[in-house]
Sequence to fold (1292 residues):
Amino acid sequence: MLFNDPSPLEVKILTRRLGLPNSASIETNLANGGYKSFEKALEMTQDQIIQEVKDSNLRGRGGAGFPTGMKWGFVPRQSPKPKYIVVNADESEPGTCKDRVLIENDPHLLIEGCLIAAQAVGAKAGYIYVRGEYRYLIGILDKAIGEAYARGYLGKNILGRGVDFDLYTHTGAGAYECGEESALLESLEGKRGQPRIRPPFPAVAGLYQCPTVLNNVETYCAVPSIIEMGGKAWAALGIPKAGGTKLTCLTGHVNRTGVYELPLGFPVEKMINEVGGGIRGGKKMKAFIPGGSSCPVLTGEEAWPLTMDYDSMAKAGTMLGSGGVIIMDEDTDMVKAALRIMHFYAHESCGWCIPCREGTAWLKKLLTRLNEGVGTAKDVDLVGDLADNMLGKTFCPLGDAAALPTASIVRKFRHEFEAKLARAQAAVPGMANNPFAIV
Amino acid sequence: MADLVNLTINGRAIQTPAGTLVIDAAKKAGIEIPAFCYYEGYSLQAACRMCLVEVEKMPKLQAACTLPAGEGMVVRTESEPVVKTRKSMLEFLLANHPLDCPVCDKGGECELQDMSFRYGVGESRFTEMKHHVDEKQWSPVVFYDGPRCILCYRCVRVCNEGMGVSALGVINRGEQSLITPNFEDHLECDECGMCIDICPVGALTSGTYRYRTRPWEMKHTGTICAFCSDGCKTTLGTRGHEIIRGNNRDRSGINGEFLCMKGRYAFDFIEHPERLTSPLMKVNGKLEPVSWAKALEAVARKFTEVKTRGGRFGIAASTKTTNEENYYLQKFARQGLGTNNIDHHRSGDVVALIDALNGRADALATMQDVYTMTASLVIASDLAQEHPLIAFQLRANNRHHQSNTYTVTKGPVREDKYAAASIRCEEGGELEAVAGLREQLSKEKELLVIFGGAIKGEAVGKLVAFGDSLGIPVKYICLVDYSNSRGAMDMGLLPDLGPGYEPVDQPGMTLPGMMAASDLDVLWVVGSNPLARYELASPGAFVVVQEMFLTETAARADIVLPASAAYEKAGTLTNVTGECQKLHAAGRTMGAKPDLEILGLIAREMGLNLGIWSSSNVFEEIRKSVRGYNIPLPIIATGQAAQTNPVKGGVPLRPRPDLIQPAGNTLFTSGSLGRYSKKLTSVIEYPGQLYRP
Amino acid sequence: MTFSPELEAKLEKLMNSYPPGRKKSALIPMLMFTQDEVGSITQELVEEVARRIGIPTVQVDEVVTYYSMLHRKPMGKHHIQVCTNISCLLWNGDELYEHAREKLGIGHKEVTADGMFSLEEVECMGACSWAPAIQVNYDFHHHVTKEKLDQIIDSLRKLR
Ligand SMILES: Cc1cc2nc3c(=O)[nH]c(=O)nc-3n(C[C@H](O)[C@H](O)[C@H](O)COP(=O)(O)O)c2cc1C
Ligand code: SF4
Ligand code: SF4
Ligand code: SF4
Ligand code: SF4
Ligand code: FES
Ligand code: FES
Fold:
């Protein structure tokens, strides 16, 4: 089911079957070009497949944006150990809801992507790690997997070509950190979702310490079209350093929120005003987050001239991230936003390392207080300081994910903190000096 | 040889084998990088972030505890960003940490306190509410104070990896994370206290030491554990004459930091209220306190009288007294009383092994071999219960060197978890089972055979023959039970063998022989409790007992002489692997005397000249005269272990497997002695299944 | 402990999804699926799962307390989860949550006296473009207004 109308400005590559009747069924899929790329890949060597993916300039769609072809190239294919395909369908970066759309509407596309990846590295088994909240997707995936087995696309001796590949679904149970690849693997092994020491990276020692290709749902879903079109042609959909299209989740204060497939390098302005139908209520944009709440926050003015791609966002001091665009209008309370974001990271910190475990908890308390108007300018400095002390020092990137938006909000919207303190003090004099007034 | 790499730390050029972690490379060069979670020998965590250092060409600060040294690496450990980061990690840690150092058990020894002093945190900027959780008692020895815990996971790792128990875990996540015991609100485990010892802060504490003193108020004495034969070094902390705590934090012994429940906590037997503090003499069928002079005079008079009329002595010696005491006692028996009727409770057939090895001096394994040999075969012993240190070393060997272990035991044992093969068999079927492993074993590079008391008499010879037939180097450990069981044999507390396994001309009576004899005139019992296992057949025997407690045997005595405990005297002990180590007196019990002194005083009273009874003099005599004991004095004197090696050619004697009777001690029992440790009894009485293989 | 035949079949399939010697991988899905049937992670369930997988119970405890969707106490028949994370907050998810609290008369992770409803303020559930969103058990509802929430609750109440 699609939850929003498509936009005429979309370039529908991954999503082209979405909206067809019964799009999740293997019949619809096969009737509309499904599994053709896999059949094509069967005729290719492993190196050729990997080369096409490299040529496509596909970068991981899970948030980190690591070049996918290169990652596949790291897998020691000659290793005697079994190799695994793992799909990261943990989608839990706030602002992100695209993988769900792909799986719900075209699960066979994901299966086909996995098959091609398996072919590229010689994997015989794969796991789709689906976040616990997406239980209904497990039903959809299991049904699709069943269909694929029945049609000989999965299992032993696939299509009579002597290739074996088994694919399984695996449910998570509520933990954002399990989206981080090594924590996901721990979770898949039945443990607490705490990250591993890296290196070694999953490509070398992943699931059960075996070589593992681990990618985001959308990344795998991009692969069939890359094989179909050829890597170079696929790359050309985007801009020179960022190939192809990206599913973008417009969220927050725009008129037409929704998930849209847009080519990389798409202008922010056009995305908001034309795809999204403009800021809700004709207001001004105060803040902009390009790819999930882990990215540094931009002011409206900073964001308007940018394009949606890795370099443009990096230059502006933020990241393209997962594609979860969060738009905040002029009425948004940035202190409250900062608090809500920190509330999330404190809740999701796995607790493994000191700076993140203690830092997020402390910041949450501090921001709760500041949001109530209790505190002084020094406390506002402290927010920035603590975020700084976390940044780059935590064991996994979740700590950075917590620190980055916080630090940028304090830096760019400091006046809102101060105004809030001033307002509260005007109402209740002496409050600033009593940090325990509100606990 | 591993390749060497060159790196620079704080401007100093350092060469180190490739793969060395930067934190270790720095340490070797005398540069300390602070760490909470890193702990040598256990898995890496990289969790505390205290060790972050600056490395040129790397964008972020790097955790020195997981970063392998690389060629050309330029590392800075004291640069401004590093120092600032360290401070901020401490600030984060202290944010929620209760500042109760003045009442915390760890005060003075707390790594967090130390680091805060050294890396200066200054005033806390944390003004929010701290969350409080009450301290919990998890077991007779383990208490947990959640808010003090810094989640370094050392305890979890030491229990999982070091002990093989896996009783500790982590629950919740984020700031709510806590260490948890294996049964929700309590622990069922080995009670070894390793987790407490390794805890850098006062989060895990023991019931023994809690709130009784502060580290700097104690005197520390390194001595040897009084219980099993593994010979762990334990450092006893005392205040006055009271022993308050045992540990081996300085890793100065063969056991590194390891101690089991007994070595760490069971020292409390020395202050048991039933400890004998005065000689006792039977008056009208009742034991009454008498003076030492009176008691000694009575013993000497009786001994002299029986000796002159050619009466029969029986001497039951100890498995816990020192080598010096043992040596002196057998000399007393043989030279002073003219009898070979001397024996002790034998728990392993060391004699048969010495005989079977027939002069091959390199075939007796050391404790170090347990940690380094590439394969081990464990026969008829539940090591984790009976020989906790050997079990610990074996696990470490497997963890660090991927060594192979094979087990042939009656029931499941902890070693099964990582064993290459495990075979269950009834007693007597071991050799057959071992033969079934021939193919696997002969593929090994070398083999350490560790066998329990069930392998005795001829079976020992057969086992050695099997080892010989494998065509690989094989070493052996014959397991014995008590702290100086091995020394008792080596010093000749045997009716047929003198010191160094030299045969005597006229073999005397064995221990069961003495007990069964109907015409014994004197039964002299030194530090042992034969009446717990045998009847005394001679109704008229005059019984003299040197003991710490009124045991079954002491209760039947005519004269009881109160003896000092191992922790109250000097001397040496020889452990199961032949390592000789020195005891140092840590405590003192008024009224009691070391057995050596008692022997000397009786000899003097009798007018015998057996030499000066100071332990150093007797030790000199042992070094000169006992095979395998000519060990370097400085090693012993500096508190290290000196390897003895009493191997000789064949030992001509009739095998007496019936005399080998393993005590079957568990992790929490130790013959008669264990009964007098309140700590041990509290553990035994604790509901729940503490030990699990 | 035995489960319904359907669940047993599901668990069997689950146990066969992992390579030999990797049974522990089944732990989290097994807890999720059995919790759905049992209602919560009871001590008995912890022991049963530990037994089936062959691990000490403490390893199950470690996992149960880590994941937010596993709970030791039973939730209501209809577990209402309101997202107040950033994208939903921008569409007044916090007010929606307050409304749910008032309507149901219970707070975070509480259950109504009749056991019909429980409420939880949750983190982003992947419905951000259709905010504010709620989940009732595993069912998503998008663009939820206070009125729509009332309707949902009322119709569930009728359902009994
Ligand atoms: C805290 C954290 C959460 C993450 N969550 C997700 C997620 O929900 N989905 C995802 O695909 N990747 C997530 N990632 C990124 C993954 O670690 C990993 O980079 C990605 O799955 C790799 O696939 P890709 O290269 O195809 O993007 C997360 C990373 C971090 C640090
Ligand atoms: S940064 Fe540290 S505490 Fe936070 S999620 Fe990662 S490992 Fe866990
Ligand atoms: S005392 Fe118990 S929990 Fe602690 S390390 Fe020993 S066995 Fe493990
Ligand atoms: S209890 Fe001690 S050793 Fe264990 S995690 Fe906490 S601080 Fe570390
Ligand atoms: S292993 Fe033996 S010697 Fe070591 S502490 Fe335990 S009882 Fe004492
Ligand atoms: S010592 Fe390196 S992170 Fe703890
Ligand atoms: S923020 Fe509410 S569903 Fe994503």
